[in-house]
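Following the same procedure, backbone shapes were mapped to integers, yielding the entry below.
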Amino acid sequence: MAEAYDNTVLQVLLDSGRFSEASLAAVAARKCDWHDDKGLNLVLDHGVNPNYRTIWKFTPFQQSIRRDNGLVMIEALLDHGVDPLLSGVESATPSSSTIRNRAVPFCDEFQS
């Protein structure tokens, strides 16, 4: 369900309303792993908390940065209330991690 680009089953499960806050965040993080912007938007539209720390100790946003997602996914998370200054388990904020990894487009987003 989370490890696929066909989001039909995900849509049915989301519509059932049976996801917990933790499971929604886990699905969002996996969609970031897969660079699946359509799937991520489905989960975001169903109310996932993009600041929720998953069982892997990262938020969906932090996972998006760790996986070098494109700006479309980063912007979607920002549009849904992510806090880019939350520190991760490695004591670095996603923005400082991207500077270290030279993800310039992400940093430019904060300057505009």
Remarks:
- The CA atoms of residues 51 and 83 lie 6 Å apart.
- The domain at 8-111 is CATH 1.25.40.20 (Serine Threonine Protein Phosphatase 5, Tetratricopeptide repeat).
